[in-house]
Amino acid sequence: MTDVRPGAVHGAPDFGELARLGVEAESVVDFSSNVNPYGPAPCVVAAFRNADIASYPDRECLKLRDAIAARSGVSPSSVVVGNGSAEIIDLVARTFLVPGDRALVVGPTFSEYERASALAGAGVVRFGRTVAPEGVSLDAGGLLGAIRSETPGIVWLCNPNNPTGDVIGAAEVESILRAAREVGATLVVDEAYAELVLGGGEPEDLTPPLGDGGLVLLRSMTKGHALAGLRLGYALLPPGAAERIERLRPPWMVSSPAQVAGVAALSAGAEKHLRRSVGAMKKELAYLVGELRELGLAPVPSRTNYLISPAGERCGSGESLRLKLLLEDGLLVRDCASFGLAGYVRLAVRLPDENRRLVGALRRIFHDEPDGSR
Ligand SMILES: Cc1ncc(COP(=O)(O)O)c(C=O)c1O
Asked: How many Å lie between the centroid of ligand 1 and the Cα of residue 357?
């Protein structure tokens, strides 16, 4: 069968691949998706377990939109809830792009922006960050120039960025927004990882206010709150634009368990769980960075719960390191070829013992240590 999803390469286990390779999915430790390894808060689990799954969910997600609006300081009519933020990316592209438009993607980044823009009939223009061992940089002046010369319908900006883990400050986001507004473009800032900026920074710290239009903020509840299997995300945007998006979607896209879990995830108890997880992940990120450096790799500085690292000369490509770790150790990392970074892998921070297993496997591969221990 033809794959009708061009460019759809993602982290997370590919169950078809695991079956082909004879690897048991249940035994794999997944370093390839950037989800909170401490799992959902107990109050979130309790909430979705008690959900009424025999009845249809609230089509308008009223309680959840109220909770999100209260948290974000916007009106509920500015909130669109989706079956994961991936669904909203697609809806945003279909709402704000018409065939023949250009979509400007600030890369290397999450592939769904390009896929959704192309499916909406737009031509994709890329503006690249520079990825170097000492860090990731974005030529802000060059980007503003590209927005003015390309006059795109949408500018897609992932902040913090996947896969590089760099963060653009609010002042810079505001200057990008001003340039987008000048040319009538919609700036979409995907903040899927905003609550996973290790070392502080609320989502609100990164982002400008919605204002009159031209800005869509995307948030995922599947990463920090570990609801990837349940699927939940939302967008904040001016009410008129939210209404245009709602017109495009089929009814009942967000299940009752997802809606009640979302409300619980915004409670003080879940917030505390998230803060604790972030504190623990911060220590583990430092551990991973130190160990990768000891191995002679040069991980690219990241401010989030994942990082990219060269795969090293011995493996040559991210794909070959990925397969080695998967087949020999049952550890799944994300190779970065689809981001245009074929020599890199992306690693998510996981639980302390899992991170030590990964380091042990890497030591064995890079230093020929029989069991990776020292
Ligand atoms: C940057 C970014 N945005 C959005 C998504 C989609 O997240 P979800 O649909 O689970 O909310 C992902 C998933 O990996 C992502 O990395």
From this structure: 26
Q: Under a CB-based contact definition with an 8 Å cutoff, are residues 86 and 233 in contact?
A: yes
Domain containing residue 89: 42-269
Do residues 366 and 295 lie in contact, with contact meaning Cβ atoms separated by under 8 Å?
A: yes
The string of pLDDT tens digits covering residues 247-290 is 999 999 999 999 999 999 999 999 999 999 999 999 999 999 99
Q: Final residue of a domain: which of 220, 249, 269?
A: 269
Chosen domain end from 269, 289, 319: 269
| CA distances from residue 24 to 29, 35, 110, 149, 354 in whole angstroms, order as listed | 11, 21, 27, 50, 17
Tell me how far the alpha carbon of residue 358 lies from the centroid of ligand 1, in angstroms.
24
Q: What pLDDT was estimated at residue 303?
A: 93
Ligand 1 lined by 210 (C-beta under 6 Å) = no
Strand locations in the chain (E): 29-30, 79-82, 102-107, 123-128, 130-132, 135-137, 154-158, 186-190, 215-220, 233-236, 306-310, 331-332, 334-335, 344-348
Distance of CA 252 to the CA centre of its chain: 24
